[in-house]
Amino acid sequence: MSSDPMKDALRYLKYRLRSRREIEVQLFKKGYSEKEIKEVIEKLEEQGLVNDGIFARLYVSDGLNVHYKGPFRLRQELLGLGISEEVIDDTIKLELDSCDLKEIGKRAAGNTELTDPDKIRRKLYRRGFSSSIIDEIIEEIKEKS
User: Fold this and answer.
1) Rounded (5°) CA angle 33-15-108
2) From 71's CA, which of 21, 35, 58, 121 has a CA 20 to 30 Å away?
3) What was the pLDDT predicted at 141?
4) Helix H segments across 51-130?
5) For residues 25-58, b (16+ Cβ closer than 10 Å) or e, as one string?
6) What is the DSSP letter of 82?
7) Are 94 and 57 members of one domain?
8) Alpha carbon distance 128, 92 (integer Å)
9) Looking at the predicted structure, is the pLDDT value of residue 13 above 70?
10) Do 78 and 89 fall within a single domain?
11) What is the pTM assigned to this prediction?
């Protein structure tokens, strides 16, 4: 085991951005004390390497535009990663103002030749879309058929 918590934290950050809590949990699993973990997190925040606001913004942006996830699912995932509700709400609101959620929902629905509304509804619910967006998408698909 490495005896430097900063090196372990930086190694963990090497692959992708992480939330503060993710790093705390990882360092705790490695056997570091709460005091060591707190010091490392503070140093990383001072250096700008850990910032839950930036992490949340990038996570939501990727979730919407790359993985086609809805806002409800993204909210739950970010809560699980230790991001505060206030940061999540602000981030999702900001991102939704700059994107077309209906278009993202259509992409999430996938093959539009799929005409079974129940299958589409279930798929979009799992992806975290609201029933109003799902209804609009299903109506549009019905009109095309």
Assistant:
1) 120
2) 21
3) 81
4) 52-65, 71-80, 85-97, 101-109, 117-127
5) bbbeebebeeebbeebbeebeeeeebebeebbbe
6) T
7) yes
8) 13
9) yes
10) yes
11) 0.89
CA geometry: angle 73, 74, 77, nearest 5 deg: 85
Whether residue 90 sits in one domain with residue 105: no
Tens-place pLDDT, residues 80-107: 999 999 999 999 999 999 999 999 999 9
Question: How long is the chain?
Answer: 145
Domains identified in the chain, total number: 3
Within a 10 A sphere around the Cβ of 121, how many other Cβ atoms?
A: 17
Residue 77 structural domain: 51-99
Q: Terminus-to-terminus CA distance in the chain, angstroms?
A: 61
**Residues of 69-90 as b/e, b for ≥16 C-beta within 10 angstroms?**
bbbebbbebbeebbbeeebbee
Looking up residue 16, the CATH number of its domain turns out to be: 1.10.10
User: Any residues with CB less than 8 A from the CB of 98 and at least 6 apart, and which?
Assistant: none
Two tokens, residue 83? 């991001």
Backbone angles phi, psi at 75, to 5 degrees: -60, -45
- Residues 36-85 pLDDT 10s: 999 999 999 999 999 999 999 999 999 999 999 999 999 999 999 999 99
